[in-house]
Amino acid sequence: MQPRPPRPRPVRTWFRRHGRDFAWLAPLLVLAGFVHSSGMTRAPAFTEVEGETITRIADGAWSLPADFGLAQLAAWIGPAGALDRAAHAVAAGREALLVVQLLGVVLLWMLARRLDVARPAAAVAVAVFAVSPLALYLHRMVLVENVAVLWMLLGFALATARRRQPVAFPAAGVAVLLAVLTQATFVVVAPFVVWTMWQQVTARAWRLALGGLAAATAAGGYVYVLFSLAGPVRGGEAPEHLWSLDPVLVAVGPAAAAAALLFRPLRPAAGALLTLALLIVVPGGSAAVALPIAAVPLAALLVPAAAHRLIVRLLTVRGRPEAMPLAIMTATAAAALIVVVTATWPGELRPLLRGDAVAPVAQAERWIEANVPRDARLVVDHTMREDLLRSGFSAGGVLPFTSFPVATAPGDLLPLGAAVPARRTFEPRPPGWTHYDYIVSTPALRADDTDRPDVRTALVESTVVAEFGSGGGRVEIRAIHPLGRAVAEAVAAGDRRTVRYATGQLLRNDALTFNAAARAVASAGRVDPRLVIVLGKLSGTHQLDVSLPALPGEQDGVRRRLVLGGLPTEDEAARLALWLLGQPPPFTPSQVDTDGTTVVATYSLAAPRGLLPDPP
């Protein structure tokens, strides 16, 4: 009787072959997931490109194959219900980018090991890819370029195959094609993937074919990229901004690529990184965001990989006269790099991990939902539009500012008698800026460098009614004045004079005790006229302590919140609250709260004009 053949144990076999790699990779995945998810919905600030991406995914306004990148993001956002869970629509997209980041860590590890990078050096590459401030800033943004990086890394990894090349090489080509379909700028890396394949084969026919393919992709790809970089780049990144985010990786990455050219297996990746760096720096101005996103994993790979190869080279010359100077230079460079990383990375990572650049946007959205009627017409950016639609605003009343036409230079005059060409398609345009009630000035709106006359005029002919945040991250909710800002300010000055006269009489009333802040506000006439009339009625029946606190975001505006204290009992406070709620419009508060013997009444945003008589 023949003995039975041993039963196959694929899991045990896999762990025997890859167990050590898995032991190294598992904690790196935990590290990458923890760092990426810590504050990913708070920093960096939402961008207009992210908002447009999420809007198209939420509306289903994409199609294949033109929007292959959007389809891949939608494959997570839709089935996972991310839009239903997230507080902001853009945050739902950033949840998908966490999955993309973890897949990128696995692919970068696989590529490093296929290039014979030692496990400690490969771990450093993954750590740089996950923790670098520049990488973290770019990888969190909802951009299809981050998905294209996965296909690029997969293409490089498959191109390094030494076995089963008839299967691996076509698969690498498909991966590069998918990267280009996801974001066309990634055609830049296609020749270097082909170069990697060329290194793995020895047959002359294969090398000629791959060399011709690399030349063809380089010729076509670079013509496309150079033409695309010639015009204005929307949502691009300026080289100086990249430098401010992470000077270490920006400086050390190209230097490591230059050193990696000494080693044959690393030359394709080094050539790709140097080419991307040149395309970022040489044209000047903003570069397509795809270029730094594609460069980050290559830089993260080449820094430890080149260092590992140099150390191996140094060990081979041990005992020779040149060994000691090489060892001193290597140790000095490593120590300097560690010092620079320790000095710069914590400061750059702190805003990304602990900061909240999105807080002003969230506060502005809550203010709009609480104070702006649902039938109002607003001009916003895409990062806010989807959130406002989910809160009940109509799609026709919330307009993205990018819908307004851009300024066009007058063309040459047609000769007399020439036929005027007819427009082939009807392109609906939104009404002018005077049709809208509010414009929300966000960092994304202000970062748009396209000249849109309607947007520019709406910002000039509007006044701030609520402001959140400060500096470049502030969000302003501005009321648009169709007759112009000067007319509106003149009317507001007249209203303040009327209110100042009426509040002057209240300040002399012994039944009302204003605190110092409320007295200053009342003396300046910055009080809603409805509050003045209500206080006048109450002064005949109650002895009250009065304060006029500002609502969040309205520190410099007209006070429309009234806090009444000094009531003898809680029952008296409850009766006063019911009396306030029973007042006829427009004197009915939008909200009344009681806290012991204190009553807080909040009125709606806009008061009718003409409630108070003109001063004598």
From TrEMBL:
- Name under which the protein is recorded: Glycosyltransferase RgtA/B/C/D-like domain-containing protein
Origin organism lineage: Bacteria, Bacillati, Actinomycetota, Actinomycetes, Jiangellales
What's the domain of life for this entry? Bacteria
UniProt keyword list: Membrane, Transmembrane, Transmembrane helix
Q: Which residues form the signal peptide?
A: none
Segments spanning the bilayer are 61-83, 95-112, 118-136, 143-161, 167-196, 208-230, 242-263, 270-303, 323-345
Keyword check for NADP, yes or no: no
